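Structure ticket #2291
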Amino acid sequence: MTSFARGGCTQDGIELVWELRSVNHRYLEIQPRLPEDFRQLDAGVREAVARRLGRGKVECGLRYKSNGAHVAAMALNEPVLEQVLAAMEGIRSRESLLREPDLMAVLSWPGVTVTAAPDLTPVQEQAMALLEQVLDDLVATREREGQRLAALIESRCELLQAQVEKARLCMPRVIGAIRERLRARLAEVAADLDEQRLEQEMALLAQRLDVDEEMDRLSAHLQEVRAVLKRDEPVGRRLDFLMQELNREANTLGSKSADSETTAISVEMKVLIEQMREQVQNIE
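Resolution: structure written out below.
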């Protein structure tokens, strides 16, 4: 979800530049940063971004420059001007003043001039059209980043699946080694071993240490991760849930670990899952 796009245009002395920045966020948060004359576009900007993006904190900054063609126009308020001039003329005739009135003072008198706001509607429409173009670039950038992250997660899935198969292969040997150690220890303290009771205890121990179900679920979750990565829709939340499930099974393997090898496999699994989880936070 981390990306940047910038685009601008210049026409009839007007320069517009959009800068869009997207960073990781659990939900979609849109932050328009607009010049004062474009504040009314806030809702439209939010709607345009929401149509294209599903997650991320998105900053939408607009810069606007004009050569003066769209500055506010000043006009005379004729009735007020007439009143001011009449009052000044009355003062001159009464006091026999010869000095001509100060035009700047007349113009600065409250109400003599009025300012008409320029019509920025065409410029605002141009800004919204430009926003759509820059959003195209932002989405394309995010898609390229998504493809790279998908390849990275896929590679971690392969490594994790290799650890699953490694755990499957080592478990019979681990249980056999535990059986022999237990038999040897019991032989030291008991001259006459009850083989039937020993086999029953070993069966219970093997059942407690068995991780076939956990490995089956890990393989199923990994298969689902690969399938989700191929979907043409937002998949970040689904992948985040799958990371939690993968980590749950890896923790169970660690809790059932009876030797250093299975412990090492569990740790390696957690490392790979954490690497994927960190990258999943960048996916919409």
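Closing remark: The first strand starts at residue 3 and ends at 11.
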